[in-house]
Amino acid sequence: MNFPKGAGHQFQPTKFEERGTAVAFTTPALSQARVRMDSRDQLELTVSAFSGVKGNYVIRWKDVPEIFSLTMHDRALQEAIFAGNSCLPPDVRRATLETAKTGLAGPEAQRSAEETITEDENELLLTRFYLFKSALEKLSDGQMNLHVSDFTASSGRERIKSGLADIAKRLGTNANELYARLEQWGQMIAPLGMPGTQKDCRVRRLVNGIGELSDNLNQWSMTDKSEAADLARGIAKVAAFTQDFAADLAVAAVRPVEYAERVLANWEKATASLQKDIERLYWTVDGWEFILLLWKDAQDRDRDDQRAAVTEIYRVLPIIPEKEALNRPNAQAMQENTRMQVRALEGWNSGSLDIEMVRRVENVKRRRI
Amino acid sequence: MTDLASELRDIERKLFEIPDEKVAQLTLLIERSRAVVLSAALADAALGTLRPRLAKTRPPRHLTLQRIFCHPFEDLLVLPEDGDKQFGRISRSSLAPCWDFVLGCLDQAAVKELEATLRVATLPAMGAVEDPRIAKLGETLWAIAARRLREEVSAAEADPAKRADLVVKLGGETVYLDLVDMLCMLEIAAFLETLREELSPKPVGRFLDSQVEAIKNTYSALSNFGSVRPGYMIAFVLARLTDPFQALPIFGEMVELPTGVDDLRPGQYARRMIAGDSKRFFKAIGRSDASKMEAGNIAGMVDDFVHMIGRLKADGIMEGPQPEMEAAGHKLRDMVKTGVLAGADDTVLSALETPTNIEPGQEAAVKQAIFDAKVEAENRVYAIQKVAKVAGEIGADKDVGQTLKQLGGQLEQGGSTLISDIKAGKLNALGKEAAKQQLYGAVRMLELVSGGNAASKLMKDGLAAIEKMPA
């Protein structure tokens, strides 16, 4: 069913910040509801209207536990996000992992969060190593070699810093500052990893996964005769668009590595632009991890469950807001494509929590991309 | 044997790491080796191991004339529960004797020709939903087999002595009746193939409008198609559904149409088949051994049972005394007591214990043991809660309610003790973080057992106590 562009259109988010960040609540009615900042810089929650009509409810973040019957995990998560007072995707992700680590969403989600945090740390180390290696080789004309041991021992770090002294002077700074800049740069691009390395880091895996999901759902839609097939095709289009958009941002985010000298010499200006690209990338892929895991989980289930998963994915589909995708080819077609409205929230609003419904959402939390 | 068993375990472990092409090669090799190099049992065990991967990869399978012959009625096949004939179903144990009989009836030159065609037919692509060779070669085989079988069965039905001979030859009355069912399915195979396309992939969940339409049209066409028995199409449809009850209104409306079976109307045919399947399920419950089942599986069985009897009652199927159903209900009640409720407190409470004095080098093993214990405890509580929703239907509500109450009480008491220990400084040596971990564990379990309110209070009191711990 296609709805004409009507009154509701004016309330659709036009910027990432208006769309907000998806929150991995386990309370079924709030699953993937979004947090954003209001006009007074206070957190608020946007959640789909329960009766199945078009539109969202907007609720003050601090009132969420009063209005909804939350799981213990979600109470802790709500508090953690409230304490951080940020709706930026990396901050919400950190709060989510820290909350899952408590075990309040079960031991499997706890283990998954611990493993994710460890993997993040490894990816950070790996990215920093390759960034230092690449930058130092370029800046020293191949005179400086870097070994993994230089990163794991303080003596190695001192060796790097002393080697950086001449380069730093040339760039108008000192060795400590140059080292700190490289560390900070590595931290910024760690979720993507250094280009050309074997290991795909988290966000790159996510971007690839979104592309695979698009192919997968297109294929699935060809074997399905229900209305969910149309939704699957719609999701596949949005996924392909998002993957394309995110892949371009990812390329832009790591390109400065090629001209490291200029970046390190004009650090303030260069990082501002780099930070902006990375932030846009985070916003772009926000909400997709849940979708990938939901579909992965549904693939082993029967056709009815797969259709329900498609419907659920459509409900929480993160559309790139209009102003963010200006001038992109197919942007309008993608926006039009998502004007169909569906809902399948049977039994999710009976007041008390259904333990099996909660478990279904928690199941997704156990998995990792 | 040991080598093969360890090979199988290895395959099972690496199942999803093997490339698709290797899975396809392995499958064909095992299927071709069946009864030649490997014994049938070993080949089946190997295929059983591969099955989860086969469902995903769909490699081309080794095709035989027997498999093509069985295709029209493969949905009806069931493992024999007992020696009795089940309405609308065909026992797997009847396949071999019936195929031998059919093969004997066919013109051997035609069989050889078909086998030759089969050998040169192109394999379907990896991941193909259907094997096009089946429809192509089946068209010929099903027609020839149906014609020959009809002659044999008609002769047997006309002459009791011939019938008795055939029954002996096949190995029993049930096998003979299964052969008749196979024949009737072969006679409508062309219709079924068209309908199969509509009712795919299997199992079919909630009906789509187009599927309902296809069922009605096909049945109507079959009813006007010579002397075939359209009722067999009902068996085909029901066997492909996850919820066969949804088909009742469709066939119930066809009051004017025949089935060709025992003067039954389509609605009656469907109800009789569902009743037969239900009895099978009840008998399967009777054979279940709670000591060999996970609590979650028992809970799932209870849920399926209650759902099924609810539908049977609502649709007026199986009215009057139902000894199998009652026996299954009693059996489930016992299974819940022994397999779900018994020992639940030990399982749950021991998962909350924190080990002390861990031997050096044992940290990882202890961590894994704690994790396993927690997962087991959670699964047990989920099983209890799942049963709790429907326990009244099998008369287990008091037992389940009492267990939950008792467990909740024990968890609350454990939580109170934890808070007292925190207040008394007994956890000071461990630190705030460790104390929080213990608290979160207790809160999580209490939430699963007694709900959010009790857990919320424990969380609030616990965190307040931890806050006062020295930094």
DSSP strand content of chain A: under 5%
Q: Please tell me how large the radius of gyration of chain B is.
A: 29 Å
Class computed from helices, strands and strand pairing of chain B: mainly alpha
Largest sheet of chain B: 2 strands, parallel
Shape designation of chain A = globular
Number of helical elements of chain A: 16
Taking Cα atoms only, what radius of gyration of chain A do you get, to the nearest Å? 22 Å
Question: How does the overall form of chain B come out from the CA principal axes?
Answer: elongated
Notes on the protein architecture:
The complex is a heterodimer of chains A (369) and B (471). By secondary structure, chain A is mainly alpha-helical. In chain A, 60% of the residues lie in helices and 5% in strands. A four-stranded antiparallel beta sheet of chain A has the order 1-2-3-4. In chain A, helix 7 crosses helix 8 (175-189). The two termini of chain A are 33 Å apart. With 471 residues, chain B is mainly alpha-helical. Among the domains of chain B are: 1-62, no CATH class; 319-467, no CATH class. A two-stranded parallel ribbon of chain B has the order 1-2. The model of chain B has no long low-confidence stretch (mean pLDDT 90). The chains are: A mainly alpha (369), B mainly alpha (471). Chain A binds chain B through residues 69-72, 75, 102-104, 106-108, 111, 223, 225-226, 299, 302-304, 307, 352-353, 355-356, 359, and chain B through 56, 129, 198, 200-201, 203-206, 208, 210-211, 242, 371, 374-375, 378, 382, 385-386, 436-437, 440-441, 443-444, 447-448, 451-452, 455-456, 459.
